Amino acid sequence: MNIFIIPGNPPASYYYLKWIEELKESSLFSGFHFHIYPEFKNEKNSVRYLEKMISFYEGKLANLENVVLLGHSVGGKIAYEIMKKNPSNVKKCYLLFPFLCRPGLRGRMVLSLVPQLTDLLGFEVIFKSKNYIKYIVKEVEVLTREEVSVCLGIVSHERNTVAKTLTIERVDPVCGEKIKVFYTDGDTWCGKNSTKQFSKFLNSKKLNLSHEFVVKNSERALLTQELIMDLETL
Question: pLDDT tens digits for 44-56?
Answer without folding.
Answer: 999 999 999 999 9
